[in-house]
Q: What sequence folds into this?
């Protein structure tokens, strides 16, 4: 999900967002887990200087975020917007992030590696995300030297990232595959093709709201373009299967299909107390209804916005104060009602 | 429920309708189960003549319904409107009903007894229902002689009706007593006081939509007025308990209370397929929400109308053709959406 970026790109009925991230480390410093405080600050300053003190248009668009200075809610909100990892949110003083105003770019400093460069684009736009990462990579290379060996490629803290250091992933909404159970077959096929499928919040997370993250497992021995092409190809096949199944389900019993998506819309736009999990589950149905042209009371852009706004920390930022779990469920319901009711 | 009669009377947040019915038999004929065809037609003609060929205003308001000439759907629709019993709907050629245009009065001929005179009024208006029955009873007595013995009172086919032949009943909506389980205590107390509690369609029927019929068990040894007073007293106590519980439930957690009634409203006003049972269950929640002043998108009169219109046979009459079970569920959902959406 790409925050407040609007979503008008292709395949947006199924592809929520495309993401590329690069793992990089500076040659002159040990890996973060072996750094002392001074070294950590050294990395931080070098990266900050390289990216923010230059005359590019991109540079002006970037904001430096001192993670330690944020409240717990602000940090959590950044996790919910997929700008930083839960690890970075909880970590030490020399951690930071540099993000673009539109939230498309996020660079984590001193997480597992010195640098995690991430670009997210709405819909099926992996090539653009890759181009964007590449541009930041080049900007950095003008000022710093990366840990790199000709035979092994970029060196990273965890061996699974050595080589290109790239992870290309797409966030897919796959309600029909999930409903019918065929998602199991997709997962099997993906794992045989060296592709991982995870939930909404990456590793070990559940596929809340029928959202699945598809990404490459291998980073070594293939060029970046090949990896991206591979993910694009597999994604196209999953999209095709999901579309066929959606149409089959609709043809089998259009009334039952419409009943499901409209009941979910009815609950979401009337509930007074609702959890994040239930909201995501119902939003999945509503999104399916919108994608199939059945529900016209709302649109994809509003649903993308709501998927972010209902998250616990973003919700508390919107309301402007810390809320108990029950208060969040009440404010979440208020928000959903306000945004989903037809004008 | 009093059909298309509007409901502006007192206690209408809990009392749906008040009903009085009198069992009567003509002295000159054997009980229906022992009559031959000719005798049956004799009873029918005597009653028809007594009620319809006189100059009273009431007489002009009555319609004679030859049950056998109706389609199965028309007969079932009369059952759903509580105008005739399921037994009468399925019975023999000499059965008939005389009903008033507003459906408040219904006189079954040759059901278990020669005559079952019924008057229904909306809300808590037992006295009016009794007065109305009494007027019809007097009209008949001017022309026919009832089977009556000074010591035993009116003779009826089933000994449980001997004496006054009266059954006074109220239809109560008791969601708070049902939700909390306290309805069990009410049922126990009622049975000790000689009062029966039944479901929406009388004996052996379930309490669909949290509707409970409270009526006297004893017809012998008490004057009609005493019986009616007894039912009125017990009803007042049940009403009081239901009101206290509703307010307690709301005070305990107003958000959860509102959540429940609004979710039900959201489903009812958005579903595309819905059964009678589910509709009645959700309508009970919505009615509770309206009674408590929480739901303002609809009103009690509309809910009373819907409780009738969603019934299978009435629904088919509205649509104008026989429908399969699945078609009914689809048309029922259409109807609910159309009637419940705020203008």
A:
């Amino acid at each position: 999900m790409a925050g407040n970026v609007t979503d008008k790109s292709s395949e947006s009925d199924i592809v929520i967002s495309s993401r590329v991230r690069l793992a990089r480390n500076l040659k002159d410093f040990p890996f973060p887990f072996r750094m002392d405080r001074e070294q950590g600050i050294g990395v931080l300053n070098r990266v900050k200087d390289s990216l923010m003190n230059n005359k590019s248009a991109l540079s002006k668009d970037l904001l430096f975020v001192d993670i330690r200075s944020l409240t717990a809610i602000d940090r959590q909100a950044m996790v919910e917007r997929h700008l930083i990892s839960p690890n970075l949110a909880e970590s030490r003083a020399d951690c930071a992030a540099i993000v673009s105003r539109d939230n498309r770019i996020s660079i984590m400093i001193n997480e597992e590696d010195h640098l995690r460069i991430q670009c997210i684009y709405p819909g099926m736009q992996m090539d653009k995300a890759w181009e964007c990462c590449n541009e930041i990579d080049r900007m950095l290379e003008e000022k710093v030297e990366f840990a790199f060996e000709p035979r092994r490629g970029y060196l990273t803290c965890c061996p699974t990232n050595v080589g290109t250091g790239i992870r290309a992933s797409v966030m897919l909404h796959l309600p029909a595959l999930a409903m019918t159970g065929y998602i199991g077959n997709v997962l099997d096929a993906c794992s045989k093709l060296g592709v991982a499928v995870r939930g909404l919040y990456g590793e070990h997370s559940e596929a809340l709201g029928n959202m699945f993250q598809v990404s490459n497992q291998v980073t070594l021995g293939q060029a970046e373009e090949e990896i991206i092409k591979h993910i694009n190809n597999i994604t196209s096949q999953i999209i095709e299967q999901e579309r066929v199944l959606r149409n089959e389900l609709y043809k089998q019993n259009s009334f039952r299909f419409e009943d499901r998506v409209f009941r979910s819309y009815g609950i979401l736009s009337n509930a007074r107390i609702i959890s994040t999990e239930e909201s995501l589950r119902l939003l999945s149905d509503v999104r399916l209804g919108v994608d199939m042209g059945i529900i016209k009371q709302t649109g994809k852009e509003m649903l993308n916005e709501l998927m972010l706004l209902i998250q616990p920390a973003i919700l508390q930022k919107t309301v402007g104060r810390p809320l108990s779990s029950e208060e969040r469920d009440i404010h979440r319901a208020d928000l959903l009602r306000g945004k989903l009711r037809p004008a």
User: Anything to note?
Assistant: The longest strand of chain A covers residues 15-24. The interface with chain B takes residues 255-256, 258-259, 262-263, 265-274, 326, 330, 333 of chain A (CB under 8 Å).
